[in-house]
Design a protein that fits this description.
The protein is of the alpha/beta class. The protein has one domain (3-20, 33-58, 68-131): YqgF/RNase H-like domain (Nucleotidyltransferase, domain 5), CATH 3.30.420.140. It contains 4 helices and 5 strands, in the order E-E-E-H-E-H-E-H-H. Residues 134-140 have low confidence and may be disordered.
Length: 140
């Protein structure tokens, strides 16, 4: 099964990919200026990589409740469902971006936040969680 991992953001959408080997790798993020263009880019990735399912980071509050950011992701999920007709799984993404930023700092790598590299690395963690490498953090 080919799976696309998504770390949603208002300006940048991090992307990761895993095929039947179940190894998640970050891919180029969707950083186009308009949402319509970002969705077209995602559509291209879905077609090109023959994606069967999507795992999307779901930003729960630290206490596990659904906050306004998670509700924004729900709206984005509806757009994905209507456009791509693929199964979509919400994956707890608490602290993924923070973990990635700490990893980059630990390796003394400077990354331009606007490049989307952090977002795609976060999408990779989300996808790894979905695939079961970091425990069972699937939501639905």
């Amino acid at each position: 099964m080919n799976v696309l991992g998504i770390d949603w953001g208002e300006k940048r959408i991090g992307l990761a990919f895993a095929d039947s080997l179940a190894v998640a790798v970050p891919i180029e993020p969707a950083i186009q200026k308009k949402l319509k263009e970002r969705l077209a880019y995602i559509e291209n990735q879905i077609k090109e990589r023959k994606v069967d399912a999507i795992a999307i980071g779901y930003p729960l509050n630290m206490d596990g409740t659904i906050g306004f950011k998670a509700k924004e992701v729900d709206v984005f999920i509806k757009k994905l469902e209507n456009r791509f007709h693929l199964p979509i799984t919400r994956v707890d993404e608490r602290l993924t971006s923070h973990l990635v930023e700490q990893d980059y700092k630990g390796h003394k790598k400077k990354i331009d936040p606007k490049s989307g590299a952090i977002d795609s690395s976060a999408a990779c963690i989300i996808l790894q969680d979905f695939l079961g490498f970091s425990g069972d953090s699937k939501l639905s």
